[in-house]
Amino acid sequence: QEVWTEEKKLPSEKNLTPVKKISEHKNKTTVKSKLFRTLALPPGANKNFFSLCTGCNECIFSCPYTVLFPVISQKDERSFPFFDPNAKGCHLCYDWPCINACPEDALTMYDVSKTTPKFGKAKGIGKHCINDQTKEKTCDACQLACPIEKTVNFRANLPIFSDSTCTGCGLCVEACPTFPKAIQIKTLNNISIS
User: Fold this and answer.
1) Cβ pair 171, 145 in contact under 8 A
2) What per-residue confidence (pLDDT) applies to 163?
3) In this structure, how many other beta carbons lie within 10 angstroms of the beta carbon of residue 62?
4) CB of 71 within 8 A of CB of 79?
5) Under a CB-based contact definition with an 8 Å cutoff, are residues 170 and 185 in contact?
6) Quick one: pLDDT at residue 11?
7) Structural contact between residues 173 and 184, judged by C-beta atoms closer than 8 angstroms
């Protein structure tokens, strides 16, 4: 990129000359961190995920709810699967088709009876909630959408989310009928795939 200025010449002879080059690398890391701050890795992503994942996209193709999507690394131009729980929630499928589809063991199987994935934590934004407007429990869409019992409760007609059982799957955000949404998922991982 270059910045150009116009030289003073006759009206018919307008020339543009370069003044200075703009650094292309300025604030590059800031942009990356903002880009990925709401993304989460697929269920079962283990600590060696980025070294094991080949970018085959089999997990993306196998997701019956089309939640996963590829993000391309600028470093080596491989794609990695991600999802944004603030846009579309992970359905925590009982048979984990995304994990079963992974040929490289980058995604590790969950025993649902013992543990569930942890993508982040849901937080209510009271001023956007229908119940805040009506001053009564008019809406319970988040509670009905939550796949884990007793994770969403209500206090003063506003939803509160259990620290211990909330997975941050995003199904409550997806079900929320308001705009802007009255729930936001704060993802746990600081992802960098540069």
Assistant:
1) yes
2) 93
3) 16
4) yes
5) yes
6) 54
7) yes
Estimate to the nearest angstrom the gap between the alpha carbon of 86 and the chain centroid: 6
Contact 137, 157 (CB under 8 A): yes
Q: Which pLDDT band, with edges at 50, 70 and 90, does 78 fall under?
A: confident
**Exposed e or buried b per residue across 99-110, where buried means at least 16 C-beta atoms within 10 angstroms of its C-beta:** bebbeeebbbeb
Closest CA to 126 of 97, 102, 160: 160
pTM, rounded to two decimals: 0.77
**The residue type at 142:** C
Residue 128 tokens read as: 């956007």
Beta strands at 120-124 and 2-6: parallel, antiparallel or unpaired: unpaired
What is the four-CA torsion angle of 29, 57, 85, 110, rounded to 10 degrees?
A: -120
Between these two residues, 42 and 38, which has the higher pLDDT value? 42
Q: Which amino acid is at 58?
A: E
Asked if 159 contacts 124 with a C-beta cutoff of 8 angstroms, the reply is yes
Write a three-state SS string for 71-94.
EECCCCCCEEEEECCCCCCCCCCC
Q: What count of other Cβ atoms lies within 10 Å of the Cβ of residue 50?
A: 15
d(CA 106, CA 119) in angstroms, rounded, equals: 16
Burial class (CB in 10 A: 0-12, 13-18, 19+), 170: buried
